[in-house]
């Protein structure tokens, strides 16, 4: 990634909330990790300070081992208290110039420090039923404050940008769409559990927003109607919340007799194997800020079946991929049955050149640098 090294006379200090890296591989943590791997270098015009209230997950240790990273494990207060008590003190102590919030929230007070924030979605407005009660109220109360206070908002998609503008139209000048990237996995490793061939694959945390219950219900219904349906279903992901019944069935292997298999929290090499070996990729989410797994499936040339929601139309192609009404079991049954009659290979090579992590990191860094260069116009 080309880094601009000579534009600034001073190396501004950027504090980064890296709590997403404490939870293993999710869409949020992958986005942040891939960007930091490209930004935290000796050539960077910015100096990054990384903060978390929890230990970083082992899959991201390479970021901590980077000699140019400055990581601080700053106490064990819960998230809200840590963000609003510990971080303001660190901003002052470490003499930060900018603070970058990566979980859609900023401290209630950042002093005179410039601030940027990532926004992946506006779930508290568009899909409140997919959030825990505590998370809903936290974002319902604090997101408007964060959006007003932030000097720059990185939107994960054009859909997220539109949602924010529908909420507060005057925020347009500070919104910048920065899509995630995708790259080939470096290596493959077969899961420890034995899986059948020609399987359909989906990945997601076991939680309401990922809508895996609807997909499983549709698959089981399809198998009842047509016991010769040729594609098994493989679900990969980590345990979440409000999905106890499905979680138990998957962990016990109770659904394997019906052709449904579970791979818990797979490493990247196993994910790579699953994407490459599957016959098609399924993504039934009720709501997403973007949908990074779809990019990973497209990178492998897979046909996708996804929920018919606006953001997925920024990625997929009607006529090539299939769409289903998110919560309509019959719609999913129809879409899955259509796979039997569809050529399960994309008609042309997918162009990944506009979906690279290098480009994502470059846009993030450009945003932070431009923010610093225009600080005199923004200081409150």
Automatic annotation (TrEMBL):
Membrane spanning residue stretches: none
Pfam families registered for this protein in UniProt: Glycos_transf_1
Boundaries of every Glycosyl transferase family domain copy: 196-341
Keyword Glycosyltransferase: yes
EC number: 2.4.-.-
Keywords assigned: Glycosyltransferase, Transferase
Keyword hit for Nuclease: no
GO BP term, pick one: lipopolysaccharide biosynthetic process
InterPro entries the UniProt entry points to: Glyco_trans_1
A molecular function GO annotation: glycosyltransferase activity
Protein name per its UniProtKB record: Glycosyltransferase, group 1 family protein
């Amino acid at each position: 990634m080309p880094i601009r090294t000579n534009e600034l006379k001073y190396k501004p200090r950027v504090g980064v909330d890296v709590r997403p890296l404490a939870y293993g591989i999710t869409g949020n943590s992958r986005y942040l990790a891939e960007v930091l791997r490209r930004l935290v270098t000796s050539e960077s015009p910015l100096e990054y300070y990384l903060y978390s209230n929890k230990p970083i997950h082992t899959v991201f240790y390479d970021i901590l081992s980077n000699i140019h990273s400055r990581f601080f494990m700053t106490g064990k207060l819960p998230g809200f208290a840590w963000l609003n008590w510990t971080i303001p003190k660190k901003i002052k102590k470490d003499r930060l110039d900018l603070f970058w919030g990566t979980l859609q929230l900023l401290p209630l007070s950042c002093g005179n420090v410039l601030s940027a924030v990532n926004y992946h979605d506006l779930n508290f407005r568009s899909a409140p039923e997919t959030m825990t009660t505590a998370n809903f109220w936290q974002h319902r109360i604090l997101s408007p404050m964060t959006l007003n206070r932030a000097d720059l908002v990185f939107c994960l998609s054009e859909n997220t940008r539109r949602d924010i503008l529908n909420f507060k139209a005057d925020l347009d000048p500070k919104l910048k769409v920065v899509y995630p990237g995708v790259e080939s996995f470096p290596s493959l490793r077969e899961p420890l559990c034995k899986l059948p061939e020609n399987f359909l694959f989906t990945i997601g945390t076991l939680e309401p927003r990922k809508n895996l219950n609807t997909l499983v219900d549709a698959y089981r219904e399809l198998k009842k109607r047509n016991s010769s349906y040729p594609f098994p279903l493989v679900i990969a992901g980590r345990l979440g919340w409000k999905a106890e019944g499905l979680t138990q069935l998957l962990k016990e292997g109770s659904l394997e007799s019906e052709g449904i298999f579970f791979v818990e929290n797979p490493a990247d090499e196993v994910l790579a194997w699953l994407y490459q070996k599957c016959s098609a990729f399924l993504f039934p989410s009720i709501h997403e800020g973007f949908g990074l797994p779809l990019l990973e499936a497209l990178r492998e040339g897979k046909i996708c079946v996804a929920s018919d929601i606006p953001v997925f139309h920024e990625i997929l192609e009607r006529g090539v991929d299939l769409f289903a009404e998110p919560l309509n079991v019959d719609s999913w049954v129809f879409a899955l049955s259509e796979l039997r009659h569809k050529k399960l290979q994309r008609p042309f090579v997918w162009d990944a050149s506009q979906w690279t992590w290098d480009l994502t990191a470059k846009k993030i860094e450009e945003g932070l640098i431009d923010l610093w260069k225009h600080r005199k116009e923004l200081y409150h």
